[in-house]
Amino acid sequence: MKALRRLTIRAALPAELAKLGEIVENLRWSWHPDSLDLLESVDPDLWQQSGHDPNRMLGEVSAERLGQLSRERKFLRRLEDVHDDLTDYLTQPRWYQQLADSPSSIAYFSPEFGITEVLPQYSGGLGILAGDHLKAASDLGVPIIGVGLLYGAGYFRQSLSRDGWQLEHYPPLDPQGLPIQALHAADGSPSRVALPLPDSRTLHAQIWVAKVGRVPLLLLDSDVEENDNAARQITDRLYGGGAEHRLEQELLLGIGGVRAIRAYCEVTGTPAPQVFHTNEGHAGFLGIERIREIVDGYQLTFDEALQAVRAGTVFTTHTPVPAGIDRFSRDLVARHLAGMPGLPTERILELGAEEDPTIFNMAHMGLRLGQRANGVSRLHGEVSREMFAGLWPGFDSAEVPIGSITNGVHAPTWMAREALEIAEREAGSIAVGQGDGFQAVDQVSDGELWRLRNELRERLVDEVRRRVHNSSLQRGMSEAELGWTASVFDPDVLTIGFARRVPSYKRLTLMLRDPDRLRALLLDPERPVQIVIAGKSHPADDGGKQLIAQMVRFADDPAVRHRITFLPDYDIGMARYLYWGVDVWLNNPLRPLEACGTSGMKAALNGALNLSIRDGWWDEWFDGENGWAIPTADGVSDPDRRDDIEAGALYDLVEKSVAPRFYDRDSSGVPTRWVQMVRHTLKSLGPKVLASRMVTDYVQQLYAPAAVSSAQMVADHFAAARELAAWRRKVLDAWPGVRVLYVDSQLDGDAQLGGRLTLRAEVALNGLSSEDVEVQAVYGAADTDDRLSDISTVRLKPIEHPDGTCWFEGELPLERTGAFGYTVRVLPSHANLATPAELAVVAVA
Ligand SMILES: *Cc1c(COP(=O)(O)O)cnc(C)c1O
User: What is the average pLDDT score of the chain?
Assistant: First the structure.
C-alpha cells in the first residue's frame, strides 16, 4: 500500500540548540557561507543526502547526535556567532535606512520565486530574478513584502529516457517540510484569504510566510479544507492547466495577494505598502483589488480610485514578443469578475482591451494600471516601446513611457565561496552598495586568479562526472557499463557552458548546425573544448523536447561523450556549479528575443567570459574586452540561412579566438591574456551586474517617485485623485476638438548653425485653458519623407491675443546642420502626470 502523504517527524531540538531552529527558519542561511558551514557540521553525511536542505536534515538527524552537539563547546560557540550575525543582519540599519523620504514599504508580486533549490517554486529566469530581487532588497534594508503562490508540486523534475526524451515528474511538496511558516491571525487561527469564483463559489487560501533575510515572502496555497475539490487544485502546479486554471491562479495572486498583505500587515504591525510592483503582468489584478478597496472604503468613483492606484503601481514587462504575453478570453475574465461586488465589470475589461475585441490582455492592463513601467535591459526597453506603441497612438515609439532597468544577480548566492573570500579579503564585502570593491581585483595576482579558475573548473568536472553517472543509471544502463563516466571531462580543458530553458528562440541546438565542425572542436588534439549543457523544455512543448533529444543523441556518441554532455534536471543547485566552473558562458538566442538574460551575469561574477549574441544585457555591456560577441545575421530573413551564418560565426570564434587565447600559456603555465580578460570582466561587469545595483535603481527611479505620487493622490481624502480624474475626463472629452490651426515661423538671420527660429502657433483648445496643455515645438533630423528622428522639444509659451484666440510662441535653436525639420504639437499637461504621453492623446500640426 502507498502512503497518501508523508511527513517528517523531527526530534525536538534541545534547548541549547534552539538558535539553530531560528537560523534554519530564515532562508538567509542559503546565501551565507558561515551558516552553511554550521549546518553542514551538524551531520555532514545527512547534509549531503538531504541535498543541502536543513529542514530535511534536522528531520532525520538522531536525538543522540543533537544531544552530543548540545554539549560540544566549539559547536555552541559557532552557533552563537552565526546567530549573532543573523540578528545583526536583521536589525541593524542598512543602505535604505539612510535615505530620506523613502517609501515605508513596497509590495513585490511575482508568479514564481527562485530562492533556493529547497523551495522549488520557480521555472526559470523570471523566478530567479524575483528571488534575487528579494535577497538584494534584504541586504540593502529595502522594506519589501514579496507575494506569490505556493504550488503543490512546483515546477517539474526532469529526467531522460534511454533515447533522450524528456520525462517529467512532479514530486508533491509537503508544506510542513518546506522552509515556510503558516501565518496566524491575532486569535491564533490560521490566516486565510477568500475571493469569489463564478457560480457563487468561494476560493479560500492559506497564507504561508518564507523569511528571506529581512524580507517576508507571502505564499498563497489553495489546498485547504474549506475549498471544493476544483478550488483546491488551483495552486497545484506552476503555470499548470488551461486558460481558466491559469486565470484563477492569477486572480488569487493579484486579488488574494493584496488581501494577504493586509492580513500580514495587521498581524505584524508592518506599515501598508505605498508602492505595488508587479513582476510581469500575471499579478495585474492586484490593481483591481486596490481600486475596490478605495471605492468601498472611501466612496470614490472607479475613475478616481484608478488614479490613486496608478500613482503607486510599477509594472515590469519581461517579454519582447507579443506571443509571450498573457491573454485570456474576455468572456472568461468577465465571468470571473462578475462576482467582484461594487466594480463595473465593463470598466475592468476596458483596462485589458487590445486590438482583438474578444481578448483580455494582461500586459495592457499592467500598463494601464501602472503609472510607471519598465523593461529589463536597454535593448528590451526599446523593443517594448515599439511593441506597445499602439497604446500611445500619435507618439513615436521613442516617447512611449516605458523605461528600462537592467536586471542583476545576487552575488552572495551565485559567487563561489573562494571568489567571495578573495573579494572580501581585498575589498571587504561587495554584496552591498555599489560594488566598487571589484576594483580591488587588481591586487590579486595573475597566478592566484588562474588558480581560482582551475579550482572551480575542477569542482565542476567532479559534479559533471557524478551527474553523468547518476543520469546514465537512471536511463537504464548498468553499473558495469559505466566505467567511462569516471573520466568524462578533463579539469584542464577549456570548458563551455550552455544552460537555460529550451524555448525555440534560445536555440539549444545551434551548435549542432554542422556536427562535424563541432566534433572537430571537441576533439582538437592540441586545443580541445568541452561543453556542458542543461535545460528543461516546457512540458507541453514537444518541439523543445525534440531539441533536447537531438542534443542527447549527439552527446551519447562514445567518440565525443567525454567532451560534451547534457545534464538533466537543471535547477539552482546544478546551475551554481556551472556558473562557478565554466570558462566560457555561451548564449545564442535569436536577437532580440532575450529580454535580458541573467545566467551570463552569474558566470561573469565568477570570472567566466561571455560568448554571446548581442542581445539583452550583453548588447549593453559587451565592450570588446570582456568576452566575445557572436555576430548576428541581421536582415537575413530565411531562418535556416540565418542559423547557418550565426553558427558558422560561433565555430570561427571558438576555433580562432577563444581556444587559442585559453591555451596560450606563459612559462609558469598561466594564460596571461585570458586572465587579463577575466580581470577586466570582474572589474567592469562586476559592479554592473549586481542585483544590489538593480534594486537601488528601482528604489531611486521607480519606487521613490511612485511613493511620492501615491502620497499626493491619497492625501486629504484623495483630493488629488478626485481632481485628476475630473481633469482627465474634461481633457479627453475636449480632445477631439483640440488642434494646431496655424504655425508661423521667422528665421532670425540666415539658416545657419547657431541661428534661431521664432515660432508662433495658433491652437484651438475647445474649451480647455492654456494651463491644461503643453504646446511644444518638436524638431530634429528630417529624412526625405520628412520623418523626424533624434527629436528634441521646446515648450512654447502662451501669449496674449486681443481677439480671444489662443497663441503660443517660442524659439528653436538651429543646432544641427543638414536636413532639419520641425512641427508643433499639443499635449495634455498636469502636475500629477508622470509623462506628457500618459493620456495617450496628442494633437500634431
Ligand atoms: C539564472 C538562471 C536562469 C535564468 O537565466 P537566463 O540567462 O535568463 O536563461 C534560469 N534558471 C536558473 C536555474 C538560473 O540560475
Answer: 94
Reply yes or no on whether the pLDDT at 430 is more than 70. no
Cβ(500) – ligand 1 distance below 6 Å: yes
Our answer on whether the CB atom of 312 is closer than 6 Å to any ligand 1 atom is no
* Residue 128 CB–ligand 1 contact under 6 Å: yes
Distance 600 CA to ligand 1 centre (A): 9
Q: Which CATH architecture has domain 428-682?
A: 3-Layer(aba) Sandwich (3.40)
Give CA angle at 682 (677, 684), nearest 5°: 90
C-alpha gyration radius of the chain: 29
- 597 CB less than 6 Å from ligand 1? yes
End-to-end CA distance of the chain: give it in Å, rounded.
79
pLDDT in tens, 78-109: 999 999 999 999 999 999 999 988 999 999 99
H and E: helices and strands count for the chain: 29, 29
Give the number of other Cβ atoms within 10 Å of residue 829's Cβ: 18
> What is the rounded distance in angstroms from the CA atom of residue 335 to the CA atom of residue 14?
54
Q: Is 152 in the pocket of ligand 1 (CB under 6 A)?
A: no
What is the whole-number distance in angstroms between the Cα of residue 35 and the centre of ligand 1? 25
The answer as to CATH 3.30.420 being correct for domain 738-844 is no
Q: Which of 116, 599, 602 is the pocket-test mutation for ligand 1 (most atoms within 8 Å of CB)?
A: 599
Expressed in angstroms and rounded, the spacing between residue 596 Cα and the centre of ligand 1 is 11
For the whole prediction, is pTM greater than 0.70?
A: yes
How close is the Cα of 582 to the center of ligand 1, in Å?
15
Does the structure show a pLDDT above 50 at 216? yes
Cα 598 to ligand 1 centroid, rounded to whole Å: 6
Specify whether the CB–CB gap between 137 and 100 falls below 8 A.
Answer: no
Query: What average pLDDT score do residues 200-214 get?
Result: 97
Pairing of strands 843-844, 820-828: antiparallel
Q: If we measure between CA atoms, which residue out of 27, 135, 612 comes closest to residue 409?
A: 135
Nearest residue (by CA) to ligand 1, atom 3, is 125
Mutate to test the pocket of ligand 1, among 119, 135, 279, 598 (most ligand atoms within 8 A of CB): 598
CA distance 281 to 288: 13
* Spans of all domains in the chain: 15-90, 102-404, 428-682, 738-844
Cell of 301: 468613483
How far apart (Å, rounded) are the C-alpha atoms in residues 688 and 488?
35
Q: Is the CB of 124 under 6 A from ligand 1?
A: yes
102-404: CATH topology: Rossmann fold (3.40.50)
The domains spanning 428-682 and 738-844 adopt the same CATH topology: no
How distant is the alpha carbon of residue 292 from its chain centre?
28
Residue 299 has pLDDT above 60, yes or no: yes
Q: pLDDT band for 761, please (50, 70, 90 cuts).
A: very high
pLDDT given at position 18? 95
Letter for the amino acid at 609?
L
User: Of 315, 309, 278, nearest to 294 (Cα)?
Assistant: 309
Antiparallel, parallel or unpaired: β 157-160 and 181-182: unpaired
